[in-house]
Amino acid sequence: MVSNVTSTQQPVIAAGKLTKRYQGSVLALDELTVAIPAGITALVGANGAGKSTLIKILLGLLPATSGSATVLGYDCVTDGSAIRTHTGYMPEHDCLPPDTSATEFVTHLGRMSGLPATAAKERAADSLRHVGLYEERYRQIGTYSTGMKQRVKLAQALVGDPRLLLLDEPTNGLDPAGRSAMLDLITRIGSEFGISILVASHLLGEIEQICDHLVALDGGRLLRADTISSITRSSEFLLIEVDEGGELLADELGRRGLAPVAYQRGLLVQLADDADHDTVRDVLADLGLPLNRLEQRRHRLEELFSDVGSEAVAYEAKGAADVRG
Amino acid sequence: MSADNAGVIHNIGYRAYQGQRLGRAEIVRALCWYSLRSAFGFGRGAKAKIVPVLTFVVMCAPAVISAVVIALSSNHTRPISYDTYVSALRILVLIVFLAAQAPDVVSRDLRSHTLPLYFARPIKRIDYPAAKLAAFIIALLAMIEIPLLILYLGTVSQLHSGSQIWHETKALIPGLLLGVAWAVLLGGLGLLFASFSGRRAYATGAVAIFFFMTLTLARVLIQIGQESVGGAGLAKLAGLISPFTVLDGLRQWLGGTSLGIVPKPGGDGVLYGLMFVVFLVVGVGGLILRYRKVGVA
């Protein structure tokens, strides 16, 4: 396997002033310049922000109007075939024939990825096992649940042993259990299989849990590109709920330099550093209050993009945040 | 389901692929083979094999019957000619085969939106229709040429002198070559019409209506032309409407002597040759254009 990527420092995906204007002058990408490192990267944005367009340009399925892009060091315009050899793509929409078994279908697409017949068969079986399909894989795809179909879509992207996976809305149409299973799977592929992944999603809340990096698009433009930790560091909150003495607690916390905000039946305190944890602990101990709940919470990323200023208000408006043990 | 499986998945471990990766040409060949199998319903349930197997059996039946007749009769003369085979039966069976199987080759992928998965792999846009066309032409060749070969083998098995066998072989070759013309022309047009719609019923309808209506129209007009005074011109022009009459006109123009479905073209035979090219360009070119345009979204 020829690798154009020599160091992990080199971006897996790089776009320079990438612009895509569809016929009828719809601007899907507007001079997008971004470098995406190895690891799991979330590509977030509302529907129509340009996520799918970017993925299709990266695969060489769509020509860009102007600008340049490279994937794994290969140029999207001239080396599309090399990119597609080493990249697995999971489209957003349904793309599976109902009257074929998963084994047969994934094997066939393995062959289409350039695997010899025997290797395609082996890797199809492996990929389907990796995504959690066992005996079911001999059944016709038409009989599958949505969750199983999503797994087949992921398996066909994995079958060619890609170095990069482009996943377009992989949790679409899944119930909460299916979503978390799919996210687990993506995490495992990213960390244990060592495959870089770009996950496009409009659901920031769930995607932030599994990604190392985040690229946010809005109207075809880059809104933000950074590591998840640096984006969310400033937004750690502690939810404190006591059975009684809530006002006493709020007063004491305020006195010690924290700014508690009433939230549901408890208090919400923004954490600047570890010392704040100690302060909260000390206050609770000193006052001897009956503690009911102590919970670390985080802003959903969507709040970061909507309004960072008035945390509690944005927080309340968007509903419950992620629960962190 | 996932929570239970998670531990198991974890234990398998991921194996990277270090082996050989095939190039574009071999991928296209694999796609062609896969499509050829699907043209006969292989790789899918028993239901998918009914029409292709049945049409193939019906197509071969005259050749088998001929072999039996030759074996039983005393003078060993072949009752069926190689260049037309059993014209009416062959046309009917091929229309059924085209209408039923062309959608299997192309419109299934359109209906299930599988094309982006192909185009996301190391092949070029044109490779997909090229592989599909090659596969379908081979499928049609099997439908057309295998009965001819059965007919030939059934005949020569009863012949004893080398000159007789040589004579028989010389008669077979134009039949085989015409079969290639049939397969190429019908394959291109059949796939083009089948690729208009991802809905199987519509695709089948489009193929059946095109081939059946043009043939019926051509035959009615030919008959009118032949029966009316001074209608010979009309009869000749009418033969240009249907791919089947064009193929028959082409056959006669190239020297086929058996009685066909169009009147002897005489000096106007070149028109059939031209029309053959037109149909071929429309079928193959249209198919390529169709897939250049198809969306990947």
Word description of this protein:
The complex is a heterodimer of chains A (325) and B (297). With 325 residues, chain A is of the alpha/beta class. Chain A folds into two domains: 13-231, Rossmann fold, CATH 3.40.50; 233-324, YebC, transcriptional regulation domain (Alpha-Beta Plaits), CATH 3.30.70. Chain A is built from twelve helices and 15 strands. Chain A has a six-stranded mixed sheet, sandwiched between helices. In chain A, helix 3 (102-112) crosses helix 4 (117-130) and helix 9 packs across helix 10. The longest helix of chain A has 16 residues, at 176-191. Chain B is mostly helical and 297 residues long. Helices cover 72% and strands 0% of the residues of chain B. Chain B contains eleven helices and no strands. Chains A and B meet through helix 2, helix 3, helix 4 and helix 6 of A and helix 1, helix 2, helix 4 and helix 5 of B.
Helices and strands in order, then pairings?
The complex is a heterodimer of chains A (325) and B (297).
Chain A (H helix, E strand, L loop, with lengths): L12 E10 L3 E11 L3 E5 L6 H8 L7 E6 L2 E2 L4 H6 L1 E4 L11 H11 L4 H14 L15 H13 L5 E5 L7 H16 L4 E6 L2 H4 L5 E6 L2 E7 H5 L3 E7 L3 H10 L5 E3 L2 E5 L3 H14 L3 E8 L2 H6 L4 H8 L3 E3 L1
Parallel strand pairs in A: 3-8, 3-9, 6-7, 7-8
Antiparallel strand pairs in A: 1-2, 1-4, 4-5, 9-10, 11-13, 11-14, 12-13, 14-15
Chain B lengths: L1 H11 L11 H16 L10 H23 L14 H25 L3 H5 L7 H30 L5 H33 L5 H28 L4 H7 L4 H11 L15 H25 L4
Helix pairs in contact in B: 2-4, 2-6, 3-4, 3-6, 4-6, 4-7, 4-8, 6-7, 6-11, 7-8, 7-10, 7-11, 8-9, 10-11
Short description:
The complex is a heterodimer of chains A (325) and B (297). Chain A has 325 residues and is an alpha/beta fold.
Distance between the termini of chain B: 31 Å
Q: Output the radius of gyration of chain A.
A: 23 Å
Overall 3D geometry of chain B? globular
Q: Based on Cα principal axes, name the global outline of chain A.
A: globular
Evaluate the radius of gyration of chain B.
Answer: 23 Å
The CATH superfamily of the largest domain in chain A is identified as P-loop containing nucleotide triphosphate hydrolases
Fraction in helix of chain A: 25-40%
DSSP helical segment count of chain A: 12
Q: How many separate domains of chain A? A: 2
Number of strands of chain A: 15
Q: What is the CATH class name of the largest domain in chain A?
A: Alpha Beta
Distance between the termini of chain A: 42 Å
Helix fraction of chain B by DSSP (H/I, runs of at least 4): over 70%
Identify the CATH architecture of the largest domain in chain A.
Answer: 3-Layer(aba) Sandwich
* Portion in strands of chain B: under 5%
Q: Structural class of the secondary structure composition of chain B?
A: mainly alpha
Give the strand order, joined by hyphens, for the main sheet of chain A: 6-7-8-3-9-10
Give the low-confidence spans of chain A. 1-7, 307-325
